[in-house]
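Bump. Still looking for Peptidase M14 domain-containing protein structure tokens.
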Amino acid sequence: MNSNDVSTTNSSSSSSSSIQLFANFDSGNILRYERVTSSTSSSQPSTNPIETDTNTNTTTTTTNNNNNNSGADNGLNTISHTLPKHDIEFNVWTKRDCEGTPRINGNRSWFYFGVKGGYGKCIRFNIMNLNRQGKLFEMGMLPVFRTVPGHEKWSRIYIRPCWETINEDFKLSFVHRMADVKNSITYFAFCFPHSYEDMQQLLNTYDNLYNSRLADYYLEHPSLPVNNSDIYYHRETLCYSCDSNKIDLITITSYKGITKEREHHFDKKLFPDASTINKRPYQFRNKRIFFLSSRVHPGETPAAFVFLGFLDFILKIDDPRAKLLRDSYIFKLIPILNPDGVQRGHYRTDQFGVNLNRMYLDPDFEKHPSIYAAKSLIAYHHINNCVSPRSPLSIYDIFKDVMPSEQLNNQQILNDSQFQ
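Sorry for the wait, here they are.
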């Protein structure tokens, strides 16, 4: 598990007494911070001046993006607008992926931290060392916040931030007035977070809503009529990550075409609980497989919400589109491919600094278990569930490193002549 606790106490003035920033929670990310004073400001010159307009009582930041080495930051050359005058200011640095290890790398866009104290104060936060993300903010993106208790739903901050590129670091500045509620905590993040723990809690809720034993009951009592439109929901552990986090696999379809046969335990490295805690799902006749995965890059949290939107849709019992899809397909869903990176607050890589999205060609189960498992799952179902003879892929060439050779017999492998 990650160790993101960087909370300290700043008591240099009464206005900022006991303000703490911390990130010792799932998906949190902050390396260090400092309160900005007149001496701090003078010791950290900027390529773009920050001026105080005494007539309007606001701080004006002019941003020049001429120093542009990344396609992610190709936008307006000059941006200028005002931020409200603040009471307290902090410089904040995020952890790069694998910070403090030999595998440290340059991915550093994700930040997520909590703030205790400063109640009722307007605080300016300068995130000092992000990757270049100017185009996102030019298009209207805003960091998000929530306050517990009081404003517990994540919302975008109310005032547009300022930003500038200094050398290779993207500096993002924003202000927020803290809730005047004693003992409240306000959290800030690059965009809407969704942690590994959040996903586990949500999946546990779905487990309680959909009785996976219903299929057993139907099949044990063949005289009972089966409602084909009922939702078949099955959750199992595909494998465990290097940090022993679950890689969940969810199977969703309708009861149409259900058989008494279970899916095979086709790879002994996978489904560690299949023989003890949870059996494999049932097989269905004449249904293709639809595979969906999410969060191979941990900091790309919008993927989690796209996934959850689809999950909510495909489980709608009264939506004719969802019903038709369930009758036609078996949906295999992996909610998080990189839970270790998610927990650590990484932006793009796992705990070894590996971009798992680049490992599909030759995944190693010991190093990239989720990718190995996903590829093995796709290979198995591509071969065994109504593979189209017009497929342009050579199954053996693509999946020979995943599928055991004894399972790739002549009947399962499509000859090159079939692809004409």
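The two ends are 51 Å apart (CA to CA).

Edit: fixed formatting.
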